[in-house]
Amino acid sequence: MILSQRIQSLTASPIRKLSPYADAAKAAGKKVYHLNIGQPDIATPAQFMDSVREFQAPVIAYSNSKGEMFLLKAIQKYYAEKGMDYAIEDIFVTNGGSEALIFAVMALCDPGDEIMVFEPFYANYTTFCKEFGAKINAVPTSVENGYHLPSEEEIEKHITPKTKAILLTNPGNPTGVVYTEEEQDMISRIVRKHNLALIADEVYREFVYDGAYHSFGTMPELDDNLIIIDSVSKRYSACGARIGCIISKNKELSKQVIKCCQARLCSPILEQVGAAALYTTPASYLEEVNKEYKNRRDTIVAALKKLPGVKASDPKGAFYIMVNMPVDDAEKFAIWTLENFAIDGETVMFAPGNGFYNTPGSGVNEARLAYVLKSEDLERAIYILGEALKAYPGRVEK
Amino acid sequence: MILSQRIQSLTASPIRKLSPYADAAKAAGKKVYHLNIGQPDIATPAQFMDSVREFQAPVIAYSNSKGEMFLLKAIQKYYAEKGMDYAIEDIFVTNGGSEALIFAVMALCDPGDEIMVFEPFYANYTTFCKEFGAKINAVPTSVENGYHLPSEEEIEKHITPKTKAILLTNPGNPTGVVYTEEEQDMISRIVRKHNLALIADEVYREFVYDGAYHSFGTMPELDDNLIIIDSVSKRYSACGARIGCIISKNKELSKQVIKCCQARLCSPILEQVGAAALYTTPASYLEEVNKEYKNRRDTIVAALKKLPGVKASDPKGAFYIMVNMPVDDAEKFAIWTLENFAIDGETVMFAPGNGFYNTPGSGVNEARLAYVLKSEDLERAIYILGEALKAYPGRVEK
Question: Which residues in chain B have their CB less than 8 angstroms from residue A4's CB?
Fold first, then answer.
């Protein structure tokens, strides 16, 4: 058989590609602090398994292609409580936020079309685009201005006739940036002026630490342009459930997305049952979790400040921080740390930064750290990172 | 926003597109016998929910991108017992057979490339191809020769430089055909001669009624060409679990498919737990189910023989039968039956045949019937179908 150029052009996930090195380190008896992957350690609310255990059906049958009504209603209610009124017809349950993104790319892009992102950005956006022959149109942002957006003029300069959408993660992964209302207004003006879709990946919506959050879904002027990507994965620490959704008030879009849903038949039923129950979790759960992550954010920011030569962003949301390190190559450093470094048998793993950039050569000395560990473990992990930086033969003083 | 040509070119599922008419019939108080969808009524083995209920984990975390080891091993063991030895590295767990098909298309086709199928064929193959800009290259078969394959010469005539794979469903959906060993040898020669992939969709493998089944996986000469599509959906009456797999000994392919797996992160964990338990179901379960479907097959074939002007295939496997009916248009007839016909408040729904063909104008007076109901219900449903045929204003005598 002859394999497609398409699949050969895909790159391995920067978050997972060093896993074999971590496995080897563990096999050699090392403890590895995982800062590479956004897998929260917070317990999933008991409602999830409680409702699954109660599920009774003689036949595990196909469910509704766009999601079971009990889950659609749970999602609708969650949004209504945030002041966003969506009809059941506007909501489509997907296999995680991943499939919601896939449906958005499919709906908007023919081969050669472009989706604008602000780099650094979530690496799988590139994969989902490449799978469908679409291209990433990456507009740079930098640690110096906290990964906030460039000016309206600068963004418009990057728009081409092939640009079909702007895809934003807010709060940001990997940057932790939370856009200001002014930035959101600017994006709104741009997408409306150029008749673009705005794909708003808001899966980290509940993780905002320094002020209120303002969903793009609360901006009625965007109704025709907006596609919201959402998921229970991070919100309720249920990444393994793979339940997300795509939401839009654009009726033409909804008419098309249902065809994608029908082709893959349906989302898994048990996870839909569990996910619907998650939405009944009392608000206090999210408040507690938010407090815990804020604390972790403060811990990791303070710990990183102590490391000479390390420059970090000041994340306002999500649970990631991008760091610029005094190394020749963060990927080499990551492998070296797993293979050659330990303190009392413990080492650390992080995601090399280059995988979050589209522009060749960018992010080479950067890394994404996920602060998904308890504060004491985070302090220990950053201490180990600092000592590794001192010992690493490829250290570069700037 | 501007929608893609891609998504606008997708067609609604022939199996599901008439659902609004069925819903309306039910709302009006009619009972509808569903022969339109391959949703078995057989109880899912208790092992599924039993194992799910026992699942204990504080965090519903991401699982392995290519599937959890316990499920990979369960699949491996199932194949080994059938004389097919696959390494764990050869097996990738997917979100149903649907995602396995999607990965196969992605791995083999760039835009404009072709996948050869024998029509009539499972309608979503077209959707999965269109999603990736690939084309269906449909070779006709007919009810007259039981939907068996054309000659080697005839098949080779259809191969073009763009043909990357032959995709076969065996046993067939919607035809119920089971290919002979001679046909399988012929296909093997063709794919090896032309360096094509052979995508063998064998999800109905356990449903064969008149003799032994011979998987393409038992033909070692095909190791480099073969991609097996499999699923627990039909085998264990667990369609809603959405657990399938893609299997191949082609190492170049495996190296690529893992990237698709990683991009969408993982399959849902609870359903993997349940699916692994399904593979521990005693062989007697599948034997009983097989006996039940054989009985239903005999029932529906006998019942259809009584209907004047109806020509049906003689299905040897799966649980579908294609019928040629004396009507102007099977889709119009299907809608008319749901809207205007009932006997004692009961009516019947089936899938119009044109959706299973790629060639325009084909299958217009055909329908796919799924024999997934108890024999007495099947007899009743076919009786209603026969009476509807008598009363239908668009009846055409041939």
Answer: 106-110, 113, 164
Residue A391 distance to chain B (closest CA, Å):
32
Who's near B58: CB < 8 A, 6+ residues apart?
A43, A44
B42–A224 C-beta distance less than 8 A: no
Report if residue A26 sits inside a domain.
yes
CA distance A13 to A33: 19
CATH code of the domain covering residue B207: 3.40.640.10
Of A263, A278, A293, the residue that ends a domain is: A278
Rounded to an integer, the average pLDDT of A341-368 is 95
Counting every residue, how long is chain B? 398
Q: Report the residue from A59, A60, A225 with minimal CB separation from B41.
A: A59
* Residues B111, B136 within the same domain: yes
Contact B238 A197 (CB under 8 A): no
Any idea which residue has 């729904």 for tokens? B349
ipTM for the complex? 0.94
Alpha-carbon distance B378 to nearest alpha carbon in chain A (angstroms): 19
Q: Does residue B398 belong to any structural domain of this protein?
A: no
Output Rg (C-alpha) for chain A, integer angstroms: 21
The Cα–Cα gap between B378 and B371 comes to: 7
Chain A residue numbers touching B259 (CB-CB < 8 A): 7, 10-13, 127
Phi and psi based region of residue A391 (left: phi greater than 0; alpha: psi -120 to 50; beta: remaining): alpha
CATH code (residue A356): 3.90.1150.10
Assess whether B83 and B17 both reside in one domain: no
Say which residues have a Cβ less than 8 Å from residue B353's Cβ, sequence separation at least 6: B14, B120, B174, B322, B330, B363, B364, B365, B366, B367, B368
Q: How close does chain B come to A16, measured CA to CA in Å? A: 8
Q: What is the pLDDT of residues A169-225, one digit of tens each?
A: 999 999 999 999 999 999 999 999 999 999 999 999 999 999 899 999 999 999 999
Alpha carbons B73 and A93: distance in angstroms, whole number: 30
| Residue A15: predicted pLDDT | 76
List CB contacts (< 8 A) between A133 and chain B: 111, 133
Full domain range(s) for residue A108: 47-278
Of B222, B250, B278, the residue at which a domain comes to its end is B278
> Is the pLDDT reported for residue A89 higher than 80?
yes
Q: Is residue B330 pLDDT above 90, yes or no?
A: yes
Centre a 10 Å sphere on the Cβ of residue B160 and count the other Cβ atoms it contains: 11
State residue A398's pLDDT score. 67
To the nearest whole angstrom, how far is the Cα of B391 from the nearest Cα of chain A? 32
Q: Which of B261, B260, B125 is nearest to B200 (CA)?
A: B125
Chain A residues close to B8, C-beta within 8 Å: 256
